[in-house]
Design a protein that fits this description.
This protein is of the alpha/beta class and 191 residues long. The chain is 19% helix and 25% strand. The strands form four sheets. A seven-stranded mixed beta sheet has the order 1-4-7-12-15-17-18. Strands 2-5-8-13-16 form a five-stranded parallel beta sheet. It has a four-stranded parallel beta sheet with strand order 3-6-11-14, with no helix packed on it.
Amino acid sequence: MVSNQYCKDIFEQLREGQTVAANHPEAYKLRSASFATKSLLVQLNNSSEPAEIRDLLSQITGSTIDESVAVFTPLYINYGKNTKIGKNVFINFDCVFLDLGGITIENNVLIAPKVSLLSEGHPISPNDRQSLVPGHIHIKENAWIGAGATILPGVTIGENSVVAARAVVSKDVPANTVVGGVPTKTIKPIQ
């Protein structure tokens, strides 16, 4: 008899924010999907044609990437199907998206070089550390994520907000706010 926790597809469980144990019977699917994505990323990261980059990113995400989106490669994504990208988004060089927990990037978002969007983590307990703990990341319209910033699982960046360079964001950022530091603190409101 199969336990109820394994009735849903492993990717569906992650999208719904459920922790997935390392011994999950479908855990092998995570690596298979990552290697399939990696194959497309090799092509994407070796292209200098914006249309080809958008087409490959559409294949990776399983959704149409608008022609107003600009991506400077390299870009690294571990899965892709849980990433949603709006219109007029700019993603600069050398970004990392771990999207098993889901990443939503709304319209007019600017993402600077070396930004990490990490929608998954691991429990602190050594006995459970191989498990995955997902948390959807949501970057709302007109936000600007500064160079080298890290956004951790479960965080929402509010509309029009700015995350300063090298910041580590572990809590939601209100709309119209500038935050920075490790961990982030409010620097000032945007007027």
